[in-house]
Amino acid sequence: METLGSVSTLRSRRIILFPLPFQGHINPMLQLANILHTRGFKITIIHAEYNSPNPSNYPHFAFKPIKDRFSEIADQLATNRDGTYFARYLNKSCVDSFTDCLAELLVEPGEERVACVITDACFYFTQAVADDLKLPRIVLRTSGLGCTLACDALPFCSKKACFYLTKQDSDYEASVPEFPLLKFKDIANITINPQGMGDLTSNILNQMRASAGIIWNTFKELEESDLETLSQDFQVPSFTLGPFHKYFPASGSSLIEQDRTILSWLDKQPPKSVVYVSFGSVAHITKSEFQEVAHGLANIGLPFLWVVRPGMVVGSEWLESLPENFLERMGDRGRIVKWSPQQEVLAHPATGCFWTHNGWNSTLESICEGVPMICSPCLGDQPINARYVSDVWKIGVLLEDGFERVGIKMAIKRVMMDKEGEEMRERVSCLKEKVNLSLAEGGSSCRSLNNLVDYILSF
Ligand code: UDP
């Protein structure tokens, strides 16, 4: 019979993690690594060369770079509108280097046994590698439960035409029968390559089902009914221990330097007066859309903080396409930066609303600070998240007609000045309280983290 002492020496506290090399995936994976490290685990990060994290921000982790051949396609990032292309490419280009690296780590001399590997769900090829090496693979799904349900339901491969409807089609405003929360006009923006997205999602979902467990960056109270539906379909242990950024901020894994000078400008603005605008690390907009955003912000007359990532506007380096004299006209009322310390901006008392592309991290970060949203989803899971924000949780307004100055002005007014906006703020504040309860001792996320730790120690 084992004594307590021998059990603890058998249990392994060494874990290997493998993030997808994009900002919205790197942040939650490194936050998860930090969370597990504080629970006593020894962390090794295998990572692609592209968007490599900065090891000096994580002296407590070991980093193993692998060849990814991403440089062969990196010049397509601004022009190839098929977002799924890059993830599908990496699932082929990393196979050999990841397999060799993982196999070497498993037999590293003098090191303790590896308990499991945790990979981004989008790295579906890793399931077969882990199976071959007889190592449990846990998946980190960096998007919401609703996105996974929608991906499972949408007919990517069989009904491609429904992804290309335009305003002129009679069904454009109608609900999608397979996932009625979405309208056909939402999925017209979801991808330009339904076949590619169908292949990617079915590979991700199948390999999630084959995994040893799924970690979600969400909290139970936000998506309770979806969690029940999913647990019938994914019969592997599920852990909802998010939002991760509440344990550790994302600043250490930021790929672009955050401009902190704007915090002192925010300090000078009245409470809840500033419109914060950011469309994340991947989305691109056209020059005319960019100009509509600028006119919308100019016309509403409120202070604004606008993140314009270099290269975000197709065909522009940075701000060349702004309307004439825009910066001079705005004076101190508006600030434009290349990248912000987003979590601090959202937590700042001056921030009144968040005009967002609804990446899952941004959506969660806004909820956690009780900030209502204006939604301009661009691609991937963003239209799904935006529908949850506007139609399910009712904590934001979706710009139904895209980037168009009159609609923009009306949406900002609804959120910032109307009674309807006050109600949204109350609902999102309620969710903020639920987040805090879920993370507190005995709350759902706290319990889920304890379960995950016990589960990993059982391998
Ligand atoms: N972010 C940031 N500064 C910015 C804009 C974004 O630090 O100016 C961070 C943000 O806090 C979030 C991440 O970048 O953690 C973006 O992830 P998200 O899933 O929202 O969108 P993606 O970039 O993947 O489209």
From TrEMBL:
<comment type="similarity">
    <text>Belongs to the UDP-glycosyltransferase family.</text>
</comment>
<dbReference type="GO" id="GO:0005737">
    <property type="term" value="C:cytoplasm"/>
</dbReference>
<dbReference type="InterPro" id="IPR002213">
    <property type="entry name" value="UDP_glucos_trans"/>
</dbReference>
<dbReference type="Pfam" id="PF00201">
    <property type="entry name" value="UDPGT"/>
</dbReference>
<protein>
    <submittedName>
        <fullName>UDP-glucuronosyl/UDP-glucosyltransferase</fullName>
    </submittedName>
</protein>
<dbReference type="GO" id="GO:0080043">
    <property type="term" value="F:quercetin 3-O-glucosyltransferase activity"/>
</dbReference>
<keyword id="KW-0808">Transferase</keyword>
<dbReference type="GO" id="GO:0080044">
    <property type="term" value="F:quercetin 7-O-glucosyltransferase activity"/>
</dbReference>
